[in-house]
Amino acid sequence: MRLFAARLTACMALLLATTAAFAQAGKTELLWLGQAAFRLTTPSGKVIMIDPWIRTNPTTPAEYKDLEKLGKVDLILVTHGHFDHIADAPALAMLHKARVFSPGDLNQTLTVLKVLPPELAPRMNKSGSVTPFADAPKIKITAVRAEHSSAYVWRNPASNADEVHVGGEPVGFIIELEDGQKIYHMGDTGLFGDMKFIGEYYKPDVVLIPIGGNFTMDPVDAAYATKEWLKPRTVIPMHYGANPLTKGTAAQFQQALGSAPVKLIPLKPGEKAEF
User: Fold this and answer.
1) Parallel, antiparallel or unpaired: strands 171-176 and 161-166
2) Number of domains in the chain
């Protein structure tokens, strides 16, 4: 009996190890939903929504606009309080009971206004890191600087009037995955010298970079940041095409990159990249 139990224990350990190894062998998938919205599926199957502006986003394909049909969501990241980044975060959070990580003062605004309950709006700030999944402890989220602004516009149900509330300071996110890959979602940002520090210290493998101009870097700025400071293996342009003021294009970005040793993946909304 003891021998049987020992063999059963050994078999279970082997099964768990095999399952873990299989999960680690999985690929990372990035689905671009337009503007700065991405659905990230990690090698072990965790689903992270980033800057989810979906239902009223003119570039989001129709098949993704129904939040209930979008699939499971385990975690939500919001870089700042502007509508085109946070619009659908509260609804997704309540639908899936998924926590939202955003600038700490923005989350405090969301809880004070009762947009989200405190348990779904934990606070963090720039340079802070969290490991949000007990069953996937290698996934780590770090908030880093972004050069932009942030405010949260809330429709007061009592007056039916819009109010502007504190949105905290904008951030970008370094997302370290189970397999060690690092994805840097830059949020909305202009050029700033500490991008060089972020590139040297965090060493992102994949950078999701705004190129639209007017509110953020344009293609030339974004190419400079990519070539001179960040130096990732792969770069994916975002935050263009949804607003007539964001006129930068992926073709202009590619031209500005020139012969830089970086793989450019110019996704269209609804397209996926795998790593």
Assistant:
1) unpaired
2) 1
Spatial distance between the Cα atoms of 7 and 214, rounded to a whole number of angstroms: 65
Residue 274 lies in a domain: no
Scored b (16 or more CB within 10 A) or e, 239-267 reads bbbbeeebebbbebbbebbeeeebeebeb
pLDDT tens-digit readout, 50-95: 999 999 999 999 999 999 999 999 999 999 999 999 999 999 999 9
Q: What is the tens place of the pLDDT at every residue in 162-188?
A: 999 999 999 999 999 999 999 999 999
CATH number, domain containing residue 147: 3.60.15.10
- Contact indicator for 33, 70 with CB cutoff of 8 Å: no
pLDDT band for position 25 (cuts 50, 70, 90): low
Assess if residue 141 is contained within a domain.
Answer: yes
Q: Answer yes or no: are the C-beta atoms of 33 and 270 closer than 8 Å.
A: yes
Mean pLDDT in residue range 251-256? 98
Strands 171-176 and 140-145: antiparallel
Pairing of strands 75-77, 99-101: parallel
> What is the distance between the alpha carbons of residues 57 and 22, in angstroms, rounded to a whole number?
36
Domain residues for the domain of 171 are 30-263
